[in-house]
């Protein structure tokens, strides 16, 4: 017969890996009940649910504590990655701004975007001038580049957790495809080509001209 310690070790080896944090578990459905501090998370696998006991709920879910069981429930707010409860989001998915528990594509009037949030109470100044069109740190040599501009914000709601940020925006712009240096190089290459052509012309003219003595013979009448 096995000692009590050996029996416990044998029983632990027989328990599936995903059941070891559970109070109650089945081979078919995983965890059915969790220890007091853990949350029961049910994930769908084909036509059935599989339970896991977690310290914190995964993205798109929030933890709700109850007398009998702590559960991970799905966020109902649209485009929400993490939420405080089913309708109040605390972190939005990429590309969305958080404002009063909602995830928006653009911040509402009277607010300005800062990182992933919309901030109230900031007064904005006029936009500055667009910067020079550039790409990879140069201002020519490409068909398209980008230019930016900014505007400062001031004021701010009293007690606001974030300062009023400076806003930035950018846009696509057309660049000069040829750089001035390229034009100068092209001009110098053209001059060198003209000079070589001129030299070849004079060289050919010199080689085709007859020798001096041959000129004398051909010009003397009755010469032998």
From TrEMBL:
Question: What terms describe the molecular function in GO for this protein?
Answer: heparin binding
Task: Quote the biased-composition stretches of kind Basic residues, using this chain's numbering.
Answer: 185-201
Gene3D superfamilies of this UniProt entry?
Answer: Hormone Receptor, Insulin-like Growth Factor Receptor 1, Chain A, domain 2 (2.10.220.10), Thrombospondin type-1 (TSP1) repeat (2.20.100.10)
UniProt KW Metal-binding keyword:
no
Q: Tell me which Gene Ontology terms the entry assigns under biological process.
A: Wnt signaling pathway
Give the start-end ranges of region Disordered: 151-224
Q: Which UniProt keywords apply?
A: Disulfide bond, Glycoprotein, Heparin-binding, Secreted, Sensory transduction, Signal, Wnt signaling pathway
Domain R-spondin Fu-CRD stretches:
19-114
Q: Which Pfam families match?
A: Furin-like_2 (PF15913)
Q: Which domain of life is it from?
A: Eukaryota
A single GO CC term for this protein reads: extracellular region
InterPro entries the record matches? Furin_repeat, Growth_fac_rcpt_cys_sf, R-spondin, Rspo_Fu-CRD_dom, TSP1_rpt, TSP1_rpt_sf
Q: Does the keyword Membrane apply?
A: no
The subcellular localization recorded is: Secreted
Compositionally biased residues, Basic and acidic residues? 168-184
Give the family this protein belongs to, as stated in its UniProt record: Belongs to the R-spondin family.
Protein name (record): R-spondin Fu-CRD domain-containing protein
């Amino acid at each position: 017969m096995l000692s009590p310690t050996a029996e416990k070790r044998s029983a632990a080896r027989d328990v599936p890996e995903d059941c070891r944090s559970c109070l109650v578990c089945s081979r078919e459905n995983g965890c059915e009940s969790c220890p007091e501090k853990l949350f029961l998370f049910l994930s769908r696998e084909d036509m059935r649910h599989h339970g896991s006991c977690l310290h914190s709920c995964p993205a798109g879910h929030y933890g709700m504590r109850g007398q009998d069981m702590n559960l991970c429930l799905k966020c109902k707010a649209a485009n929400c990655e993490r939420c405080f409860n089913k309708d109040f989001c605390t972190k939005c998915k990429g590309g969305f701004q958080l404002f009063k528990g909602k995830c928006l594509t653009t911040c509402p009037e009277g607010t300005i975007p800062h990182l992933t949030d919309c901030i109230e109470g900031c007064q904005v100044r006029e936009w500055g001038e667009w910067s020079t069109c550039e790409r990879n740190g140069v201002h020519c040599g490409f068909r398209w580049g980008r230019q930016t501009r900014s505007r400062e914000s001031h004021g701010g709601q009293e007690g606001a957790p974030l300062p009023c940020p400076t806003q930035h925006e950018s846009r696509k712009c057309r660049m000069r495809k040829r750089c001035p240096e390229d034009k100068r190089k092209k001009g110098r290459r053209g001059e060198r080509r003209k000079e070589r052509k001129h030299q070849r012309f004079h060289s050919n003219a010199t080689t085709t001209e007859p020798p001096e003595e041959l000129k004398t013979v051909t010009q003397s009448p009755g010469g032998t």
